[in-house]
Amino acid sequence: MSEFTQPSVSRGAVVISIVAQLTFFLALIASGAIAWYKQDYTLITAMAGVAATNATTIVGYWCGSSSGSAHKTELLTNLANQNRRNP
User: Fold this and answer.
1) 39 — alpha (psi -120 to 50), left (phi > 0) or beta?
2) pLDDT tens digits, residue range 57-70?
3) Measured between alpha carbons, how far is residue 25 from residues 4, 29, 77 in Å?
């Protein structure tokens, strides 16, 4: 029951994810402005690929194996602590 009352995600990790997304989004906008000004869309294509990869990595972390592994470790630690208290 205690696993639902305590947040399992640290605020620092969320903040870092948001900052990373915003940074790449701003870089995408800036490179789009440069590409529009120079009429050369190679840079915007590359930045769109980088931004998509970054977003995929962040979503993969929160929904994928890293998140599951952290949750599993937390559950095992809680179980071990319960066994120590109730032999």
Assistant:
1) left
2) 877 777 766 666 77
3) 33, 6, 38
Angle at 55 between CA 11 and CA 76, to 5 degrees: 45
pTM of the shown model: 0.51
* Alpha helices, DSSP H, located in 39-64: 42-63
Locate 7 and state its tokens: 């947040």
∠ CA 10-26-32, nearest 5°, is: 150
| Nearest-angstrom CA–CA distance, 33 and 49 | 16
For helices 65-85 and 42-63, give the axis angle rounded to 10 degrees. Answer: 20
Per DSSP, 33 falls in state H
Q: Which residue has the tokens 């940074």?
A: 23
